[in-house]
Amino acid sequence: MTEIAGRPDDRGGAVREPLKFAYWVPNVSGGLVVSNVEQRTDWSYEYNLDLARAAEAAGFEYALTQVRYLASYGAANQHESTSFSLALLAATEKLKVIAAVHPGMWQPGVLAKFLTTADHISGGRAAVNVVSGWLKNEFVQLGEPWLEHGERYRRAEEFIRYMREIWTSDAAEFSGDFYRLHDFNMQPKPLDLPGRRHPEVFMGGNSTDARGMGARVADWYFMNGASFDAAQAQIADVSKQADDNGRTVRFGLNGFVIARDTEAEARAQLADIIENADTPAVEGFADAVKQAGASTSDQKGMWADATLTDLVQYNEGFRTGLVGTPEQIAHRLLEYRRRGVDLMLCGFLHFREEVEYFGREVLPLYRELEAAEGVLAWGGQA
């Protein structure tokens, strides 16, 4: 039996934590699929407030707000991510909310201050996802410089290093190609809590640049939807690079969940989403993201081998295969946990009711499997 992957703790032992669950916040219209299929998901604050409370009650620990500034590819309307995240934090009690941000749209010291305030308001539940950016027109039409792929990741890495410096030093110093900081003392600092000194830093990607950056500076590394073997290979690569840098990184995987009472119902829903795909929007999205991937130095990157069907779900969530009965999905989740996935980032078609169904029907089954796996894999120690 494959043992569930562990992460080293400060004493050199292994921390085998339960799989964590996050959901995509639908603060962008169109839901999580580029399809004309009927959806009962809404991008309004009122809907999302209700959803956040339901997700918290269902057992979700994290929520990720999307960052999109420009109407594009089925997303006609967008709410800004950081303000939306703060509102959800203020309305919940346990949920950690990850605000996606673009370096180039923010000065890192200003964002660090914003996140610190959010951290104090929420009792330590603020987090950030630093996104290098792929949609060129968002930068160009706002009059901001557009950098090529490798440079965007260099800027994003400096952005994270700068924020971490300002969060942890009373005389912060930073000198980079994109950002500079001299003898700066930001007060108050973020809350210093067990397991974290400051808001958790997420980032994602598939490219060589992204993997190296994640290994050097990220707390969490997000991956697009992937098969068991593909996820495991990327985890092994980034983990090795992180170890070489004396660091530990945890891993999140994107997965679009279609849980139904029967497998036939779930498969039919997936087919309906794909058959009703907004083809022009999917093709436009494909052109934009594949152009971004092709600009990498080694022609590797996110969406590099994605088909049009894969791109009906923005971050290739269909590839993770979370489609079927609660039992089938629970077993698949366990296999991803065995391969080293620490967090599953879930998307849904009808968010409100499906988040509740997931919490009621899938999570209890998964927790039972995870507990049994612990007994079997860890020599009788749960």
From TrEMBL:
Its EC number is 1.14.14.35. It is an enzyme of class 1 (oxidoreductase). Residues 21-342 form the Luciferase-like domain. It holds the Pfam family Bac_luciferase. One of its GO terms (molecular function) is monooxygenase activity. Keywords: Flavoprotein, FMN, Monooxygenase, Oxidoreductase. PANTHER family: ALKANESULFONATE MONOOXYGENASE (PTHR42847), ALKANESULFONATE MONOOXYGENASE-RELATED (PTHR42847:SF4). This is Dimethylsulfone monooxygenase SfnG. It comes from Nocardioides yefusunii. The lineage of its organism: Bacteria, Bacillati, Actinomycetota, Actinomycetes, Propionibacteriales.
